[in-house]
Structure formats: C-alpha cells, structure tokens
Amino acid sequence: MGWVNTVIAAAQRQGVEPDALLTAAGIPARALAWERWPIDYITRLWRASERCTGDPGFGLKVGAGVSPAGISGVGFALQSAATLREAIGMVQKFQRLISDGGRFQMLAGQTATWLVYHPQQGQLAFSPYQIEAVLAAVVRLAGWVTGSVLQPLRVQFSQARLGPLHNYSDVFGCPVEFEQAFSGLLVDNALLDQPLPQADPQLAQVHEHYTAARLAALGIDSISVPDVRQWLAVHMGTQVPRRAQAAQALGVSGRTLARRLGEQGQTFEKLLDDVRRELALQAVADPERTLADIAQSLGFAEASTFYRAFNRWTGMPPARWRRQQTV
Fold first, then answer.
1. Rounded distance, CA 205 to CA 251, Å?
2. How many angstroms separate the CA atoms of 79 and 142, rounded?
3. The pLDDT value given to residue 21
4. What is the β-pairing status of strands 183-188 and 112-119?
5. H or E, element range at 213
6. pLDDT tens-place string over residues 140-180
7. Per the count of CB atoms within 10 A, which of 49, 209, 263, 291 is most buried?
8. Is 195 helix (H, G, I), strand (E, B) or coil?
9. How far is it, in rounded angstroms, from Cα 83 to Cα 94?
C-alpha cells in the first residue's frame, strides 16, 4: 500500500483530499485498510488523480517525490546492496510486494544497460501517468541508494508526451523520447556496477529474508518465469549460470525452483537456452564483436559448440546470419 499512499499524498498536496479522490475513483474508504489493492483499483486511483488535479506533470511529481517507504519497505533493503545493479535486481525479485502493475527487465549492453518497464494491466487500460511515475521513481530511489543524483544516458516512453518537455528534463536530466517501442532508462554500466559505500552483505541478507517472508505471508509466489529469465540475463557470462545459483539468489531450494518452473510449463534448462539465444542474436548483430568473443561471453567452452547451438536456433551459421542482417 506504500505506492497507493504516495499517490494519495501527492494529490492531497495539490488540494485534493483523500475522501474526494477515493469517491472520484469509485473506491470505498475502507479500502485504505486493506493489505493490497487489485491492480484495477490502482489504475482507477491514477485516473481520478489525473481528473481531480488537472496536472499533466502529476505522474512525474509522484515519482520524483517517492520515498523508500513508498515501495512497501523494499526500499530499505536496497540501501545495503553491493551495487545499484544488485539493488535493481532486488526490486525485480520483490516487485510483486510493491505492486502487481508491472515488471522490470534489464537489457545489458557493453557500456550501458536498459532498464525496461513492462506494465501488466488488469481489465482497465493503464494510465500513462503511472508509467511516468515509475521511471521517475527509479531515478529518485537510485539517487537515494547511491547518495548522488542518478542521470540516465537516455529515457524513452512508449506513450506520447503528457506535459511540457522541461518537466521531463527537470526529472531525468537527459534526452527523453516518446512513442518508442518500450518505456525505460538507459544507464551507464559504470554507475550500475560501482560499489556502494553503505553496502552491507549481512544486513542485505537480513532484509532479503524479511522481504521474502512478507511475500510468503501474503501468499504471493515469489518465483516466476520472468524472474528466472532476468536473473539468467544478468548473470550470463564466461561461466554458465547454474540452477543451484539461481535458486539461492531467489531464496528457494533447487527442487522448489524446478517445481515452480514446472508448474508454469518451463524448465531451468529451457530458459537458459532461450536467454542464451536472445543474447547471442543481440551480440552477433553487432559487427564489431568477434564470434569467438561472443561464444566465450555466453559460456561456450569452444567456438564450435557455439556455432552448433546458433545453427540449431536459427538454421544457419552465425557468420551467414550476420551477413543477412547487414543486407
């Protein structure tokens, strides 16, 4: 409910009292005492906030004003993370404790990483103000975790611009584009991987266990296929990620991880192969990278093994596939 209370407080600062806002949203006052809201209730709250405040910058203001408490306590767990990338990974893992409204995905490149937000709406269409608030909140919380202002390299939205361009410049401090393929922020890898001064592995473990227990108490399954895919994408390297490592990172046993994936029609091995394929296609499309380097970066002991896998994925060798992309 921390995110809900953040929206309500932002509207109140603009003169819209909570009772009036809930009435406009068609939400009973008793809902404020609930542990969680259905996603469509949250969307109705945002829609009502748009109408009642009449402020095209409302979403950006909500995100820029968020506090750690505004993301249901998960924010406090972030401060003990070793790096900003690790902190974002914790948000991915415990996103459902914050809200059921979306998921984050990290797409790592050689020098920078896209942090992509995928809204997961209910029956009602998402408010574009929600998307703006989420990305602004990322910048705000990242600054709180690192102790300095986070300035992305680029920000983009899948929706049209809602207000004056200077509103976005004030929040993000970088070029912002609209009506793009996805909504997300491009962040320098050096910032994501820089050690954080307040990192505390023991405290991070305590926070992680506590947050996992909260998920369990709410009856929220803390393991999903997107969770595992994201973990694999982040940890893919010269050493192939193992199921036991993923299970430990996600706070479950290897047997539990296999069972949860099986319930969703997947296996760890299948997801590993899928992620390797996606990363391979991205890498081979880059003409500056050698095939041998790509093979090594994806954990293939020999280039020939990579070539066989690529041929299985695409029906052709990587060199021919690369030539076809440049035609």
1. 10
2. 9
3. 97
4. antiparallel
5. helix 201-217
6. 989 888 888 889 999 999 999 999 999 999 999 999 999 99
7. 49
8. strand
9. 17
In tens, the pLDDT along 41-91 reads 889 999 999 999 999 999 999 999 887 665 656 766 677 788 999 888 878
Q: Report the predicted TM-score, pTM, of the whole model to 2 decimal places.
A: 0.65
Handedness of CA 192, 182, 98, 18 (dihedral sign): positive
pLDDT band (50, 70, 90) for residue 2 = confident
Average confidence (pLDDT) over 111-128 = 86
**Could you give the CA distance from residue 42 to residue 27 in angstroms, rounded to a whole number?**
10
In sequence order, which ranges of the chain are alpha helices (DSSP H)? 2-13, 18-25, 39-53, 58-64, 74-78, 84-98, 128-146, 165-172, 189-193, 201-217, 225-235, 243-249, 254-263, 268-284, 291-297, 303-314, 318-326
Which residues have a Cβ under 8 Å from the Cβ of 37 and sit 6 or more positions away?
1, 4, 31, 45
Total Cβ atoms within 10 A of residue 262? 11
Pairing between β-strand 176-177 and β-strand 154-156 as defined by DSSP bridges: parallel
pLDDT digits (tens, 9 = 90+) for 254-280: 888 898 888 878 899 999 999 999 999
> Can you tell me the distance from the alpha carbon of 66 to that of 64, in angstroms, rounded to the nearest whole number?
6
pLDDT at 190: 95
Strands 112-119 and 102-108: antiparallel
Please report where in the chains the tokens 């939400």 appear, as a residue: 27
DSSP state of 219: T
Architecture of domain 223-320: Orthogonal Bundle (1.10)
> Position of tokens 């095939």?
291
pLDDT at 139 over 70: yes
Closest Cα partner for 103 from 134, 76, 145, 77?
A: 134
Domain layout of the chain by residue ranges:
60-193, 223-320
Q: Are 49 and 130 in contact (CB under 8 A)?
A: no
Question: What is the distance between the alpha carbons of residues 250 and 240, in angstroms, rounded to a whole number?
Answer: 17
Using the structure block, give the residue that is written with the tokens 């705000």.
140
CA distance 217 to 289: 47
3-state DSSP helix/strand/coil % of the chain, to nearest 5: 60, 10, 30
